[in-house]
Inverse folding.
């Protein structure tokens, strides 16, 4: 890469670090819509006779809507968003008629019924000029060019929002709530020599160093691949493949788990579409993605998943979301709302590492899960004693009574495989069938006749 390009990329990353640090200092991320901004969106709607007004603030991957007027919107993907247009222009964006702008064709506006449409969006800046968010007014019909005094009015309303944001930041600082962020500010407080740091995770995301590996889930009676679990890996140019346990805890701590998790969801949806385009019969596959506790607790998770599925052009039944019991929100009502929205969307809901939590039965009774995944610690000891065998048998029977499927994780021996089949476990995954592999290698397995993997017993006999 030419030196000039490298310097530009470094500037862009540094600028984004500073912008995100300024945004985090306000404490507005990962919070629901706030009524304190409603007066601004209401005034904008009345002044411009707008159908919808949105006030949102953008982190690495989403535009969080903190106040709206008209059609409710909780969040939007940042990629190809109006926020990106404002950020690129470093100022207001006015589009009197979307139909006349070729660069906006296919741009997914928040109002699904808009076509044609007009909109105007102005930046909401921090005190040092960083663009933290946008105030946008939409009209379902083209309105013509916005007059200069109208633009100034919209910018004045955005300045009001910026003022409230600054007051919020000052209150946090007075209360001693100094933010922790994976940017320059945090980097100064991280001990030298520790790797990775928050900045390393962001650069890895920007440089596309994260990849998804996939491990097949098979029907134990036929060995047919029925699904895949997506597992993240970090392919570092100098350190090689970095396992999740070496960077996921830091991602959780710094908040980078949110954009990394969003990337994983988007990448999995895109990969589903690629496999289906190669062979329409792969439409029956389900790809499962793990959700962290912070992802699960975010407002608008259902809307975000729906937007990703729509953008990739895949069915909701082709996506599964896995969560551990510890990731479930302690607020039962909120958990029911989130899971209920995902269930209505049509994605599969899986409880990962089942049996290791403290309230398993209560969760199964209360929440709309489809599938239990038996923790590998039980599967690994299933042939060694009665206790693990009894636990696995109980989980399988419990799932049968509740009308749920079971997936046994970590199957590594033919003895475990045979015993699980005898116990009535229908699905499983593990190194006995296939380790996690890159998408290209999985594509080869999917081309096997009927997607049926070789018999492990036959393979073992052939090798002896």
């Amino acid at each position: 890469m030419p030196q000039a390009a490298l310097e530009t990329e470094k500037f862009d990353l540094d600028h984004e670090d500073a912008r995100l640090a300024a945004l985090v200092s306000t404490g507005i991320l990962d919070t629901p819509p706030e009524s304190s901004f409603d007066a601004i969106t209401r005034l904008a709607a009345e002044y411009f006779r707008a159908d919808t007004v949105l006030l949102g603030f953008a982190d690495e991957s989403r535009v969080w809507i903190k106040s709206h007027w008209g059609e409710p919107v909780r969040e939007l993907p940042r990629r190809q968003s109006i926020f990106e247009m404002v950020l690129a222009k470093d100022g207001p964006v006015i589009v009197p008629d979307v139909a006349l702008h070729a660069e906006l064709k296919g741009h997914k506006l928040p109002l699904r019924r808009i076509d044609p449409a007009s909109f105007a969006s102005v930046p909401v800046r921090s005190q040092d000029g960083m663009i933290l968010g946008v105030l946008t007014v939409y009209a379902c019909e083209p309105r013509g060019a916005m007059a200069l005094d109208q633009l100034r009015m919209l910018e004045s309303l955005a300045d009001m929002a910026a003022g409230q944001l600054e007051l919020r930041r000052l209150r946090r600082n007075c209360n001693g709530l100094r933010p922790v962020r994976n940017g320059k500010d945090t980097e100064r407080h991280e001990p030298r020599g520790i790797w990775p740091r928050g900045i390393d995770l962001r650069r890895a995301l920007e440089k596309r160093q994260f990849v998804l590996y996939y491990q097949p889930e098979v029907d134990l009676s036929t060995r047919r691949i029925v699904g895949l679990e997506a597992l993240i890996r970090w392919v570092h140019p100098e350190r090689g493949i970095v396992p999740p346990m070496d960077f996921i805890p830091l991602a959780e701590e710094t908040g980078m788990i949110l954009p990394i998790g969003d990337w994983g969801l988007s990448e999995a949806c895109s990969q589903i579409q690629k496999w289906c385009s190669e062979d329409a019969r792969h439409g029956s596959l389900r790809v499962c993605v793990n959700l962290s506790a912070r992802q699960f607790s975010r407002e608008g998770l259902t809307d975000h998943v729906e937007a990703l599925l729509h953008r990739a052009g895949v069915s909701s039944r082709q996506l599964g979301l896995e969560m551990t019991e510890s990731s479930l929100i302690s607020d039962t009502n909120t958990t029911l709302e989130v899971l209920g929205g995902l269930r209505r969307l049509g994605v599969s809901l899986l409880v990962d590492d089942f049996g290791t939590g403290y309230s398993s039965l209560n969760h199964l009774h209360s929440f709309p899960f489809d599938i239990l995944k038996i923790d590998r610690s039980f599967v690994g000891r299933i042939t060694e004693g009665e206790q693990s065998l009894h636990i696995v048998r109980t989980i399988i029977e419990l799932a049968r009574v509740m009308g749920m499927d079971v997936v046994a994780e970590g199957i590594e021996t033919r003895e475990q495989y045979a015993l699980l089949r005898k116990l009535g476990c229908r699905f499983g995954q593990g190194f006995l069938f296939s380790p996690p592999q890159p998408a290209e290698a999985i594509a080869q397995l999917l081309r096997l006749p009927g997607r049926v993997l070789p018999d492990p017993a036959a393979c073992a006999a052939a090798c002896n």
User: Anything to note?
Assistant: The CA atoms of residues 297 and 331 lie 10 Å apart. The radius of gyration is 25 Å. The chain is about 40% helix and 20% strand.
